[in-house]
Batch of 4 targets.
Target 1
Amino acid sequence: MATPADPPSAEKPTRRDFLFVATGTFAAVGGAFALWPLVDQMNPDAGAMALATTEVDVGAVEEGQSVVVKWRGRPVVVRRRTAAELAAADETPLADLIDPLARNANLPPDAPATDANRAAPAGGNWLVMVQVCTHLGCIPLGQHGDYGGWFCPCHGSVYDTAGRVRVGPAPENMAVPPYRFVKPTLLSIG
Ligand code: FES
């Protein structure tokens, strides 16, 4: 089983990647806070809607990079997976999974946890997911653990490159929030 000392099984982000991710995250958060007072004064209902929805421009996210944005107080990771990450998730038999359900708010509750269902509705190598461990709510580390996905250092749960739990104690796959592309590179979460 993986331990907190395990090295990442996928490549580490470069310094350039880190700077990009930080810049993108702050830009998104800054925009949200700048809009908030105006929206709040205009209409309380509109203010509630602004809190419920987060937009993120993913146009500059390259393969192998992620951005993390805050949505309803929780981190949501938007990852553009590598071909190897995609293949690993796609080739995993459903019988190997702890949780057989997609846990994707964009699909029926009984949708199976295929990689295509985890990635929907964006599809392909995109994965949009609430980056919160389904055991007790810690924040798992990305691109760590035996399956190249996420590793939760709190009690050792391991998730694969589709965010599906592969080693407990976490009982469920990490949740895919409701989201859609409102423009070719603009993602609206919530
Ligand atoms: Fe993640 Fe316990 S909170 S394994």
Target 2
Amino acid sequence: MGERALLGLGSNLGERLANLQRAADLLGAAVGVRVVASSRIYETEPVGGPAQPDFLNAVVEVETDLEPRELLAACLGVEQDLGRVREERWGPRVIDVDLLLYDEVDMDEPHLIVPHPRLHERAFALVPLLELVPDPVLAGGMRAADATPGGEVRLWGPPLLVRR
Ligand code: X6L
Ligand code: MG
Ligand code: MG
């Protein structure tokens, strides 16, 4: 058993699909984290930051025994393991792993706001999320029907492999 959380994955450098799959595998290998489902994969236009390559984005559902802050640390650990180097703000990255939702939790702490405060503005996160959670409660109690997400997304491929 455990809590249900939704994580956003994004990559726009190197072998993008392999980066997403390795992130999902590493998340599943973390103590107290089980990957239970993946959305399909979308190719998405970059939002914010400098001109940069298109992203592949997906959302994975995990079941976890970790608290939100511990799960966030696990996400950052996976970014480190995949060699993410934080350079320019909103710049291109090998992998990004964001905590989007954690059960019904609503929290606002330094470096950890859940639901993710920008999720409802970003089609690259919201569109794959809706495949796994049809009616999510977003920031401020907003529902998806009231969201106005921006950015082009096009279906690119099937879900990531969930190895159990
Ligand atoms: C005005 C100013 C409007 C800034 C929007 C939006 C900035 C999103 C950063 C913004 C603004 C972000 C991804 C991405 C990023 C991704 C795609 C960010 C952080 N991550 N674009 N841009 N996929 N398609 O995963 O989300 S950088
Ligand atoms: Mg992000
Ligand atoms: Mg991030």
Target 3
Amino acid sequence: MRFVNWGIVLLVMIAVLVACDSDKKAENKHPPENEKQPEIAIPDFSADSAYHFIEKQISFGPRVPNRPAHKACAAYLVETLSNYTPQVIEQNFESTAYDGTNLSLKNIIASFNPDKSKRVLLAAHWDTRPFADNDSIDTDRPIIGANDGGSGVGVLLEIARQLHLNTNFDVGVDIILFDGEDYGVPANEKGFRNVPYGGFCLGSQYWSKNKHVPNYSAYYGILLDMVGARGAKFYQEGLSMNSAPSVVRKVWDYGQSLGYGDYFISQKSEEILDDHKFVNQWANIPMIDIIEYDPSTKNYFGKYWHTHQDNMDLIDKNTLKAVGQTVLKLVYME
Ligand code: AHN
Ligand code: ZN
């Protein structure tokens, strides 16, 4: 009689059983289209609330660094975020503006699920431009920045409120409000040609070299910039597509599937210098930029951009809802 190694027979049987079982698990992870997916409750983003958060910011006046309104608004932002999480950090620093002015700046960071290692970073700039360089009148007066400054922060404050009310999300979330984004060299200004990055994005440059937590990293990041104007269109921005194409596709897919296809346009746009550049290239965190883009205007943003028209009249709750609900879905699905 031939020798049978029962040990090997047993091992083969176990291997077959294990393989069958993991096949089943794989099936469960990807149910066929017609099978119902387990429902994940995604909270309703309140555009009314986001709108209120924008009104509140502009009630302080232009949030121009070194001015009292900037300081008062920072206190309001810290206090508001502290209602939603105990983890709020104020990162104070000094930076030199393009014209040599010393600026006292503050990045504000609010964290949710601080112990989770898988993290999503959501950001916007909270400062506003010191001049209306694209306007035809009062060009040296600061803009109120309802959209450019106010809108991204308004959406993020409402997301923070939802994260506090509905804790059934698995990922860690860090909300960073960058300062000193919009203190760049005025358009038509002939001097200052050698200023790095035109003097824009001072807060994200500082944070990318001095993260609030040593060795901090995130799975990916999303920057919101000018996300509240009536009829805004969001194209797939060049640097975002080069550094985090899968994140861009996921966001645009969610946006379109939620019915916001008029806002999320599946076409690539020019590369735009914005805070995500430094998060990508200096902090090595893949970050996309959801930013209004209008290929028909010469500066690619709306006609209101860096003018006194950037006020509450421009803000549309439907635009805030489209962006806010899409980003909120992303967080709860991670
Ligand atoms: C520049 O103006 C070079 N980039 C757009 C960044 C920005 C300014 N976003 C809002 N204001
Ligand atoms: Zn701006």
Target 4
Amino acid sequence: MALLVMKFGGTSVADLERIRNAAVKVKREVARGHRVIVIVSAMSGETNKLVGLVGDAASGAEAEAPGFYDAREYDAVVASGELVTSGLMAIVLQEMGIQARSWQGWQVPVNTTSAHGAARIESIPRENLDRKFGEGMEVAVIAGFQGVAPDGRVTTLGRGGSDTTAVAFAAALEAERCDIYTDVDGIYTTDPRITAKARKLDKIAFEEMLELASLGAKVLQTRSVELAMRNKVRLQVLSSFSDEPGTLVCDEDEIMETNVVTGIACSRDEAKLTLISVADRPGVAAAIFGPLAEAGVIVDMIVQNISEEGRTDMTFSCPVGDVAKAERALEAAKARGEFNYRELDKDTDVAKVSIVGVGMRSHAGVAQKMFKNLADDGVNIKVITTSEIKVSVLVDRKYMELTVQSLHDAFELDRAP
Ligand code: ADP
Ligand code: ASP
Ligand code: MG
């Protein structure tokens, strides 16, 4: 019997009415002869609320940053949102005459590393689920976003992690498809909240989606795309509020035609830090970025500029939420005499805008066109990075939306290839 994974995000399970609406879609698949694994998120807003409570309880702690307090207890609290929705979904399905049962992460089990707050799934043994399916269970409703560490404690997978739960189940149980139901009816050329001209894509290549996700398009968690790509999971994003066809994430060679630029992503809460006048000598980058890595600062873009004879300025970007951590780590390393700098310049009002497309590999002038467009809009570029299939720029946060809209027009993303 073919098995299907259906994941419902926060807005799709925001209240009982929506849970019933989602359950109707599940019932339809059961009627088609599928066994179904349903993955649920917490009700929308719930995880934010729980994260806030943890921050309030640990006085002075930064709510978004486990590490300032006992991360095991952060997970104990934050994982609870999904327990509620999984139980409610199972009840609603039972009311519809379906043999459904809820499962918490440890019951499956979803085995993860012990990196609380950002755990990685290591294995999902299928025996328990298979046995229950054998005994007549039609639908397993799994609490997304959570797992169990080797020591038996509950873990969470990082924000947006129930996408990854879904793909991991699809891979472990060799599902026919992994359907991600959300509040948009597919993957668009850019976040449809930023421009009404955003166009829904029928298909997108794994690599492009991986870039878009890691550059800020939160429609799928990055790790879920990585897992799907590696395990060849057929991944689809579609709406839980309509029956429109969604977007298939697939291999590049399944896509006939694409624009040079497939999509635009942006990330609002970025910061730029510059260490002014550090010694220009071998080992200085290692000396700076070592302590940052140890402090858990997620460093993104890096630029080094020669400022004066024998000195250099080192600029890097990181999430705004990591700035305090970065500052502390740099100052401590400086105090230990590991390196020196004259000043630490902070710019916490920047955002990152990125264009992505596999077509860039074979087209020249794409970056130039992007830069020219920003110049025409009078938007200053603060940092640039590129890879084979993307160009990213850091700009003042107040220009983020404008930049996305303008680039969307310039690359004519509203037109199908
Ligand atoms: P869920 O709660 O279902 O996981 P998310 O809020 O995590 O939903 O993701 C869906 C949201 O992602 C959409 O509402 C949309 O605003 C945003 N988004 C960002 N970039 C894109 C894109 N390129 N295509 C579609 N949605 C996008
Ligand atoms: N509820 C979790 C979050 O808000 C996981 C998810 O929705 O994917 O991050
Ligand atoms: Mg999500």
